[in-house]
Amino acid sequence: MPGRTPRTTLDRLRTPGRFPGFLKTASICVLIAGLLSPLSQAAVAAEATAANDYCGGQCSDILPPGENGNATLAQILLNQAFGTQPSHAEDQLGPYANLATGYSTLTTDKINTFFNDASFGVPSDQVASTESPAGRSDVSIVRDKKTGVPHITGTTRYGTEFGAGYAAAEDRLWLMDVFRHVGRGQLTTFAGGAASNQGLEQEFYRNAPYTEADLQAQIDNAVAGNGTRGQQALADANAYLAGINAYIDASDSGRYFPGEYVLTGHKDSITNAGTIDHFKITDLVALASVIGSLFGSGGGGEVNNAISLLAAQAKYGVAEGTKVWESFRERNDAEAALTVHNGESFPYAAKPDDPQGEALPDAGSVTQEPLVYDRTGSAATATATTASTTAAATTLSSAKRGMSNALVVSGKSTASGHPIAVFGPQTGYFAPQLLMLQEIQGPGISARGASFAGLGMYVELGRGQDYAWSATTSGQDIIDTYAVELCQDDYHYLYHGTCTAMETVERKNAWTPTTADGTAAGSYTMRVYRTKYGPVEYRATVGGKKVAYTTLRSSYMHEADSIIGFQMLNDPDYVKSPETFQSAVQHINFTFNWFYADSTHTAYYNSGNNPVRASGVDAEFPVWAQAAYEWKNWDPATNTADYTRASAHPNSIDQDYYISWNNKQAKDYATASWGDGSVHRGNLLEDRVKKLVAAGGVTRTALVKAMADAALADLRAEDVLPDLLKVVNSSTVTDSTAAAAVSKLQAWVTAGAKRTETSAGSKTYANADAIRILDAWWPLLVKAEFEPGLGSDLYTAFGNNLPIDETPSAAHGPTGAHAGSSFQYGWWSYVDKDIRAVLGESVSGPLAQKYCGGGSLTSCRDTLISTLKQAAGLTAAQVYPGDDLCAAGNQWCADSIVQRTLGGIKHGNISWQNRPTYQQVVEFTSHR
Which residues, 6 or more positions from 434, have their beta carbon under 8 angstroms from its beta carbon? Predict the structure, then answer.
């Protein structure tokens, strides 16, 4: 870590409290004058040479807030004092936000009012700058006037990748540095000890407690196992790193490096003392481990599953309790929305007829394994321990916030006869953004799109010359929990009959206050005990025997492997068809749903290393750590095993349409997370796209409208509320409070059940009272509907498996509140099935019992009305209690999206939308 520099005039400008208020306007004006001069860099306008582009001007994309994620100290000070933005820091935020109120009147010629033109190259009159990084003659970086996106063109492979690294550092150096430290569990030592920083590094270190040797081994293994492509990937990575480091040197000597290095004490604004550490190849694996853990690691939750199963069996007896548990688990629900909807079956992780090796804990014996030890100073505060609790719950849950959606329509149903896709990843909202846009053109590479900052050797989601691709998180189970029997003491376990010591991996972190983060000094040690079956996550007893529960992930120690698949996706000589696309993404071991479109075909493939489990093993529950229950041909030294063959993964070519919003992939294909039932946010896409396809003549405009309309829908209001009102209105509502609430809710449903402003910029919702009532009513009605029948213990246990609700204003997932993504996890399917059953309607895959009112329509109605009255009586301030951004009672603000600051530049909040962060709209007109 760079040494701390002496306190300077800038350091003394710090005032107590949080970074956004640390400077006073008068104080910074003097500084700004002296800091502006290094900002300008010479640029010569020139036209980029575009590679073959078969999209005919019909490829578009968007990635808020803006391409430029670096800011000098002067620019940060100006932003903090006056709200001014560096060039291209937020010029994509407005168009992105405006679609929420502009989509209803969208026409083809207006698409690029809300998106960027994603054609290859830059027209000569749109070139803002051209540079030859580090004076190289084999690569140029052209930036366009509208967005400042880098268009990298190289004549050699090395030069191309060097340019990509240089451009990445120009746009995201500080963010890349932050996340290489997150990946190593060292964020607090680098950026400060704020509770949020503590929680973030703990969340990822618990998932991937790697040593430097582990990171290097991943690289060595990935290269050795992939022949020529592996060697090329290593060469590309080294060239990319050289470009990053060349920019570090240039910006350091030129003093235009990101200002956060000064504000966090790594550089001195007056003397320029201090260092910005060069990047090394293991940093790329640390970065990849963060992204893979956050978006591509389905599974886990087996211990929570066991706890709820035991609670169900304690309530109902073993046979009936198991039946009740399975009905709530919805492993293979007949009413679930499917991505592959043609009836094809892809069995995976199904319930075995005769489960073997289960190691269910003794009731009440489970304790979570601590991660943090030896807390001092601010690490020992209540706020810090709460952050640790939240981080652990997020890591250990099977309810991974995958996010992302896709709408893909075959050319058979489009007006042009060419397929159309609107798709992208929902990666949260950050400033600077985790993703960055780029175009890379060079030997063996031809693509434009988004890449995670610091991993941009290749475009990871985007378009090639005549095809485009994207992904959503899939969540199938590649994580299993093993019960290792302890021996000798709590830190030895039996491995194949031999008492074996657990490996201890530690990370000691300490911090002191800085200008950026005034958190008081503190320190702690993160300590993980690793076994051959993965890190220890819980302790318990099984049949009286002391055990440790470990989690084994198939991508553990293998985050670097996926680089080969991304390399292939960027290679125009490799991807030429839907089949070659599917072949490319088979090399990606993260759990993703991949989608493809060219001028003629569409395709889908579900990626991930799905382990072949031993016969009889139920992936839902912990099993004994014994040879009989290990993955087939598992080698603990390399964490490799046999994986299900490619054809066994859900896959398809040219289905009439595909939708995905983290819903169930296909019939008989179980995912680790709960909630794949009759109501899922995937239905919001399914219903709209199915209707479009039935009518035919689908256009880009129509598909964007469908996405944007679903992005404003309240899933509960659209798909569950009508049945709730049917029960309430089964006889005349005489209570005036309830009747008024019913009237408002019905009017909202009739109006479309959207959470949308009365007009652009009003910051007030239409049907605001109805929205407030439902937000207040949902948790009350769910509790009143299910807890009496389930009992408090089982109700709580099921709530730990699947959260009750996930409104836009709720703080959920790794990005907290104001994150946009909503309605991924909740009890809407349970309520839907139960209410329909009480109404006497047909239900495929019903719950094991009727719960609302004990199955009585009259009693159920009484329950709903009483909770509705209670909800209607709650004020907006009670429903939306306020936070650091929003005053209590400000409904619109509570829902609004915030670009979570990871650096010194702030942006205003925007109206809620539930849509991808990076998004493409594509319709190719021809093919090579």
Answer: 175, 179, 291, 427, 428, 452, 453
